[in-house]
Write a structure and sequence with these properties.
CATH class: Alpha Beta
CATH topology: Rossmann fold
CATH architecture: 3-Layer(aba) Sandwich
Strand content: 15-25%
Shape: globular
Largest sheet: 8 strands, mixed
Number of domains: 1
CATH superfamily: Alpha/Beta hydrolase fold, catalytic domain
Radius of gyration: 19 Å
Number of helices: 13
Distance between the termini: 46 Å
Strand order of the largest sheet: 1-2-4-3-5-6-7-8
């Protein structure tokens, strides 16, 4: 073990002693919810979060869980289900759903649902091991619970893999698919970000990292994914989402489960698929991953979100609103960033 890792171990042991003495504690999901909704950007969600207990089978294990979600918009419009990534929560979609800069959001013309995925945000349900398949099954149970059919499923980052697995497993409920800077293809050595390497390789140390979680530690890792300096409240949203030890463990579990296990099935996706990618994404570089999905999914369309990194829904929300509304309604897509630098399709 390196001197740096010894120092980290000593720090974590000290943090563990403080926890044992009652000086620090994992934040509960209710408190996470209160603090997330206290952020002014999330004001439209106050009083709108719904919940229902549901029995479901997650990665082969029967589970009684509490589904939490919001629903806004035109009930007669196209059904759009927005699936957040990791670490994140339903609030990542607030500006897309409700609009920003005085412009209307997706709820102006669509029936928009934002579920909280198990192991994330304010969802109190915990799993012994959180996997991509468990999260996809949780999403399937959400569609079943509401008997949603003909839905446009939109997933970002890890949420993209939750979504495309669900689309494969429940084609009777998913009619269109949007993958935003999505996980799901195998990654090679050198394609992992430093924080991901730590989660995958640091053994038990990675699981108790929540003890050192703070906005000051989150900010530099998160800034890599954005083109402009981050406001403090956006850092707080991500920091809060992993202030619960179970959420932190789920994040580490998923980082270790990201192996492209079902990538060979992407060619079986039959739903019309839009690949909406951050032009400057450093987590899943478009020239490698967006092109990889384009080549794997028959008939898919690639649209680059101009000037955006890994989180188009937060960095260029109006572009995302226009793209999702057009796709859900079957209208022409907006013009995106140039794709001239991307490799030609191998199809």
């Amino acid at each position: 073990m390196s001197l740096r890792n010894y120092a980290l171990l000593a720090t974590l042991c000290l943090a563990a002693a403080v926890v044992a003495a009652g000086g620090c504690a994992s934040m509960d999901h209710a408190e996470i919810g209160r603090r997330l909704l206290a952020i002014e950007k999330n004001a439209p969600l106050r009083g709108a979060v719904q919940e229902r207990e549901v029995e479901c089978v997650l990665d082969g294990v029967k589970t009684l869980g509490l589904q939490r979600w919001t629903r806004f918009g035109d009930p007669d419009g196209p059904k759009v289900v927005l699936v957040h990534g990791t670490p994140s929560s339903m609030v990542t979609w607030t500006e897309v759903v409700h609009g920003s800069g005085g412009k209307p959001g997706l709820a102006a013309t669509c029936d928009v649902w934002t579920p909280e995925i198990v192991g994330h945000g304010t969802c109190p349900t915990t799993l012994d091991a959180c996997t991509f398949q468990a999260c996809a099954d949780w999403l399937s149970s959400f569609l079943d619970m509401h008997d949603l059919r003909d839905a446009t499923l939109v997933g970002q980052s890890y949420g993209g893999e939750f979504a495309w697995r669900c689309a494969l497993d429940r084609p009777d409920r998913v009619s269109r698919l949007v993958l935003m800077s999505s996980a799901g293809l195998p990654r090679m050595d050198g394609e992992w970000l430093p924080e991901e390497v730590k989660m995958r390789e640091w053994g038990f140390l990675a699981y108790i990292g929540w003890m050192l979680n703070s906005p000051e530690r989150v900010a530099p890792a998160l800034q890599l994914h954005f083109q402009s300096p981050l406001p403090a409240w956006r850092v707080d949203e991500v920091c809060l989402s992993v202030s619960n030890r179970h959420n932190w463990r789920a994040m580490v579990d998923l980082a270790r489960d990201e192996e492209g296990h079902r990538a060979a099935e992407l060619g079986s996706i039959r739903q019309p698929t839009l690949l909406l990618w951050g032009e400057k994404d450093v987590a899943y570089r478009p020239e490698r991953f967006a092109v990889g999905f384009r080549d794997a999914i028959p008939g898919s369309t690639l649209l680059l979100a101009p000037g955006s990194g890994h989180y188009p829904q937060e960095e260029v929300p109006q572009f995302v609103v226009d793209a999702l509304a057009a796709f859900a309604h079957g209208r022409p897509l907006p013009e995106g960033a140039s794709q001239q630098a991307l490799p030609a399709s191998s199809r």
